[in-house]
Write a structure and sequence with these properties.
The protein is mainly α. It is built from 19 helices and no strands. Helix 3 crosses helix 9.
Length: 461
């Protein structure tokens, strides 16, 4: 269920409308499909390593063992920062959603309340996290399936009585209305939407029988991408004209899901979708709290963070790591001072960049892992799970990640002026990552590992 529901959230329920508005239905489908292909290769790469060597701090540990200890250090801290910022972004989104019902309520109150809830769920036990994620995922999956079924019935005229067909898909320059730069922008939004897919690797170290269950979860990724994202965006593009202004709105009432349900005659759709999106936001924040806490714990255990963060309580929870992560999540309080929507966009872009850096790290680590595995004379047939199309998969995913990273903020240069605030928020992850990597390398004089030096002994965890 973590694999199925981990990345369904505001990216699909809210951001997909803006993607269709900016790039047209064809451009939105293309952008999400491109990132979907990339994520499939990344997750199968991660699955190969996670089933062979299941650990809670996958990215940091694999990069340390297969690439360079300094690269692993920087990747681990980058991933912690990525998810801690995502917590803040999701808290800001939760505030926006609550204001649908209570427009005059203070932002900081809701941010604090939801932060306490997420910390509480993660303090219970790893079973508490797993149980809450199961039900959060169930709500999201049921909503998307109902949406797709009703949408398809409306397209052919069974539900609404009037067959829309491909009329909205072919009008004007609908297929790719904003050009290729708009498609690149959709790729960035899709990247944020898909973040969380790699959580199945993080959870491998604490899952039952990871060598059996992780590959099974990995195999669902492709179908989730196809069904939940591509098909849902197809339905929205068929039923709502891309030039509809409300598609570009941050309002939950203007969610493309809400608009379609209202077209279907379900007048209560806005409130129901509001509740579903709120559960999605809490789910994403809950997952972020879990992932970043485990990453900080592994960094401390490997001597890459203060030792206090490696301490566990009687229930096996790294409490100090959890509290440090929650402290960074309090950035969401900025929403009450700088305007909810603007801060959410800043945080979303800052987190999105760090997520792509983490994905690039997965591609590099897997490429090195497989080459080292062969170089050390091991038999590929002995791998518990083997990803397809090596080395094409990780190389393609790495190139696509790099393109999206470099082109992420092309919109900051529009209209002949530079939006420096947007530019800084978007690219702050790159100098931070390089400073961590090169700073660690300068201090500890580490070198890139030779293939024969890579540590391929499966973990005892």
């Amino acid at each position: 269920m973590i694999s199925l529901g981990g990345s369904i959230g505001t990216g699909l329920f809210l951001a997909s409308g803006g993607a269709i508005h900016d790039a047209g239905p064809g451009g939105a489908l293309l952008g999400y499909a491109i990132i979907g292909i990339m994520v499939y290769f990344l997750v199968t790469s991660l699955g190969e390593m996670a089933t062979y060597m299941p650990v809670s701090g996958t990215f940091s540990t694999y990069a340390t063992k297969f690439v360079d200890p300094s690269f692993g250090f920087a990747l681990g801290w980058n991933y912690w920062y990525n998810w801690a910022i995502t917590i803040a972004a999701e808290l800001s989104a939760a505030t926006l959603i609550i204001k649908f019902w209570l427009p005059n309520s203070p932002s900081f109150l809701w941010s604090a309340l939801f932060l306490i809830l997420m910390v509480g769920l993660n303090l219970l036990s790893v079973k508490g996290y797993g149980e809450s994620e199961y039900w959060f995922a169930m709500i999201k999956i049921a909503t998307v399936i109902i949406f797709i079924v009703i949408g398809l019935l409306m397209i052919v005229g069974i539900w609404s009585g009037e067959a829309v067909g491909f009329s909205h898909f072919t009008e004007g320059d609908a297929p790719i209305s904003g050009g290729w730069l708009a498609v690149l922008g959709v790729c960035m939004a899709a990247g944020f939407s898909f973040q969380g897919t790699e959580l199945v690797g993080i959870a491998a170290g604490e899952s039952e029988n990871p060598r059996k269950n992780v590959p099974r979860a990995i195999r669902t990724v492709f179908w989730r991408i196809l069904l939940f994202y591509i098909l849902a965006i197809f339905v929205v593009g068929m039923l709502i004209p891309y030039h509809t202004d409300t598609l570009a709105s941050d309002s939950v009432a203007a969610s493309p899901f809400t608009i379609v349900f209202e077209k279907a005659g379900l007048s209560f759709a806005a409130s129901v979708m509001n509740a579903v999106i709120l559960s999605s936001v809490l789910s994403a924040g809950n997952s972020g709290m879990y992932a970043s806490t485990r990453m900080l714990w592994v960094l401390a255990k490997e001597g890459k963070a203060p030792k206090m963060f490696a301490k566990l309580n009687s229930r096996g929870i790294p409490v100090y790591s959890l509290l440090a992560t929650a402290a960074l999540g309090m950035l969401a309080f900025l929403a009450s001072f700088f305007g909810d929507g603007q801060v959410y966009i800043w945080l979303l872009n800052a987190s999105g960049m760090s997520g792509f850096i983490a994905w690039l790290g997965i591609a590099i680590s897997h490429y090195r892992f497989r080459r080292a595995y062969v170089a050390q004379g091991r038999d590929l047939a002995e791998l518990p799970y083997r990803s397809l199309w090596f080395p094409f998969g990780p190389i393609l995913a790495g190139i696509m990640c790099t393109i999206v990273i470099l082109g992420q903020s092309i919109s900051a240069f529009s209209d002949g002026e530079v939006d420096w605030q947007f530019l800084f928020a978007s690219y702050v992850g790159i100098p931070l990552f390089l400073a961590l990597w090169l700073g660690h390398k300068w201090k500890f004089k580490t070198k890139a590992l030779k293939l024969e030096e890579c540590d391929l002994e499966p973990s005892e965890e």
